[in-house]
Amino acid sequence: MKTPQGLQALIDDGVIDEVLRPLKSGKEAAVYVVRSGDDVRCAKVYKDMAQRSFQQRVQYQEGRKVRGSREARAIGKASKYGRKQQEVAWKNTEVDALYQLRDAGMRVPEPYGYFHGVLVMELVTDAEGFSAPRLGEVELSAEKAREYHRVLVRQVVLMLCCGLIHGDLSAYNVLVGPDGPVVIDFPQVVSAGGNNAARAMLLRDVNNLTAHLGRWAPELFDTWYGEEMWALFQAGELRPETELTGEFEPDETEVDLDSIRQSINDAREEALIRQQGREAAEEY
């Protein structure tokens, strides 16, 4: 195929040898399957600011650290230089998170480097060597749904122990490899300790997973893993090896239980609408 403009520099520098095919294109980036020597990998080309949708962008960026005081001041003033630095910081966020989370033992694609604004990383495949499907595209047994939920809750715990929250986690940001789920797409990762919306985003992430996997294992709807891990995190008692129960006794004087349940129901409905939309699209 014709080499996309964003990948030509990587070919010129010998980072990759060939672009094989497009893998997917989203609102924030386009991903391509590439060859590097004998290895097949993927390359994520981030779209320019003008091409991307940034709804609630400020909410995601609250609490993120910026390299250098000059850059931080410029971003705060929203100057031309500041907007450029904000763009650089946004692209660096996913790269930094991938390396940190991989080192922490989380199931994420292995990063191979960041070159000319392009992230080169592992291509997650299925048992036959084809590109792995998203969790939202596969049918599951009740047993497999419970297993995947257990694995993914553990991934959220590992992230939280690193001080991070995915912020946009759903069945469509999880790939299903031969060894189980692999979490992807981290450009909107949130600082757990520095973002006022951190708790809400964590609960939404966990509720999204529960809403999807609960379709095959309905007993998951009666679990409270997000609330449980957040309470432990706030108390400084959450560890990567912490065994969660899914049980939680909220302080009913401070917590609106109806709102929490409504958020779970909203996540279930959103997952169903997404699935119906994809099924309708496949018919054309």
Any descriptors?
two-stranded antiparallel ribbon, 5-stranded antiparallel beta sheet, 284 residues, alpha+beta, single chain, 9 strands
**What pattern of helices and strands is seen along the backbone?**
HEEEHHHEEHEEEEHHH
Which sheet architecture does the biggest sheet show? Answer: 5 strands, antiparallel
Protein structure class: alpha+beta
Strand order of the largest sheet: 1-2-3-5-4
Which residue ranges are poorly predicted, with pLDDT under 50 across at least 5 consecutive positions? 51-56, 74-78
Computed over alpha carbons, the radius of gyration is: 20 Å
Q: How many strand elements?
A: 9
Helix content: 40-55%
Question: How many angstroms separate the termini?
Answer: 25 Å
The dominant shape is globular
Structure, described:
- The protein is an alpha+beta fold and 284 residues long.
- The protein is built from eight helices and nine strands.
- The strands form three sheets. Strands 1-2-3-5-4 form a five-stranded antiparallel β-sheet, sandwiched between helices.
- Helix 5 (142-161) packs parallel to helix 7.
- The protein is globular.
- The two termini are 25 Å apart.
